[in-house]
Amino acid sequence: MLTEGCVKITQLGENGSEIILRLNSPGELVGAVGELRQGGHTSTAEALVPCKAVVWNIAGFEALSERYPLLQRNTMRILARRLQELEGRFLEISTERVAPRLARELLRLLAHVGRKVDDVVEIHLSREELAQLTGTTLFTVSRLLSSWEQGGILSLRRQAVCVKSPFGLLGLCGLR
User: Which residue of 7, 57, 128, 166 sits 20 to 30 Å from the alpha carbon of 148, by its own alpha carbon?
Assistant: First the structure.
């Protein structure tokens, strides 16, 4: 369980391209229970900033889960929430145009990994990482972000997006 920092969870596609499954923040589980028993991990975790975590070995965790059924229920709730989030993102990728999808992802990221800097909220992710999160290309993300910067909704920094107007993002994804 992550106690400090932010971790990027990724998978490689068959063609070798990397996609970001999720970003974990403090209080979230980084590994999934049972991965080790099935012959290995299916994803990779990378710290985006210095992190601290509480770590259990699988035998110890299973012993605690058997002794405390509430731990099993909480683990199932966490996994069910992750599945629900992935299903929601799959639906967005399958049915929405890129602009509202990117705007919605930036809104989620504001609350999840955003950091208040002066009068903006900074999301410390590259354009390539935003493309991986939204299932689109670097070119498309760059084009949209540049357009939104010209509109005053955000400003771009190296490896970061600074959101000036969350309401502007809401308008872009039809949630005003």
Answer: 7
